[in-house]
Design brief:
CATH architecture of one domain: Roll
Strand order of the largest sheet: 2-3-4-7-6-5
Number of helices: 4
Structural class: alpha+beta
Distance between the termini: 28 Å
CATH topology of one domain: Pnp Oxidase, Chain A
Low-confidence stretches: none
């Protein structure tokens, strides 16, 4: 692979706290703990990649996967962020991930909120060009969606690889923020005749539907397949 452990931050229990990863509001909801940040990343599927193109901000939704302290973000060789994030010069980016866990309804409109878990990572992204690292990244992207799937499908051929690009962001300047609480009703609102509480939100997978041309029985890794729990 084109990077080694010397490129990664020290494997301490927490990431380094910086001004960009310290929220200005609700600081008590933030954490820099590696385990907590990795848990959110490993149970999320979509990230938003932010960068500046031609002097204007751009934010693109895409898929990603974590391998140790590397975040691999998928894209096309024709996309603007991938063209800008060369293997050498790199490109400053901000990657965000958010999970919605509940809709919080309070007795006042002002106190409505959501329960959530989120991660924000800043840094310089570089395009993955080393063939070995690219294989690791692409397998991680497939297995992140469905564990075991990369070993049960045809690998990308030369033409497909030429159209696929992956950028690497080393996790260093990163933090997580979350809310997991009930409605915060003001004391003077508690006797109002309005319902307050939390509407839980969760992701549920349906029964896999085979393609008409697929004659194989359902693979074991898809039997009872459900999203990974946040604590896993």
């Amino acid at each position: 692979m084109s990077t080694d452990t010397a490129d990664l931050p020290d494997a301490t229990a927490t990431y380094t706290r910086t001004s960009r990863t310290t929220p200005t509001r609700y600081k008590d909801r933030a954490t820099w703990e590696r385990e907590a940040i990795h848990r959110i990343l490993d149970t999320s599927w979509i990230c938003h990649l932010g960068f500046v193109a031609d002097g204007a901000p751009v934010v693109l939704p895409t898929i990603f996967a974590r391998v140790e302290d590397r975040l691999y973000v998928h894209g096309s060789t024709g996309s603007r962020p991938l063209r800008g994030a060369g293997a050498d010069q790199g490109m400053p980016v901000c990657v965000t991930v958010t999970q919605l866990d509940g809709i919080v309804l309070a007795k006042s409109a002002f106190n409505h909120s959501v329960n959530f878990r989120s991660v924000v990572a800043h840094g310089v992204a570089h395009q993955v060009t080393d063939p070995d690292e690219l294989t690791v990244a692409l397998n991680a992207l497939v297995n992140h969606a469905v564990p075991g799937r990369a070993e049960d499908c045809r690998p990308a051929n030369a033409k497909e690889l030429a159209a696929t690009a992956v950028v690497r962001l080393v996790l260093d300047e990163v933090s997580a923020k979350s809310r997991d609480d009930d409605a915060s009703d003001d004391e003077e609102d508690r006797d109002l005749p309005h319902w307050s509480g939390v509407v839980p939100v969760s992701t549920v997978y349906g029964t896999p539907v085979p393609h008409p041309d697929s004659t194989r029985e359902l693979p074991d890794y898809l039997r009872g397949f459900q999203p990974k729990e946040p604590g896993c």
